[in-house]
Amino acid sequence: AKITYIEFDGSEHVVDVKPGLSVMEGAIRNNVPGIDADCGGACACATCHVYVDEAFQEAAGKASAMEESMLDFAENVQPNSRLSCQIRVSDALDGLIVRLPESQH
Ligand code: FES
Question: Ligand 1 within 6 A of 50 CB?
Answer without folding.
Answer: no
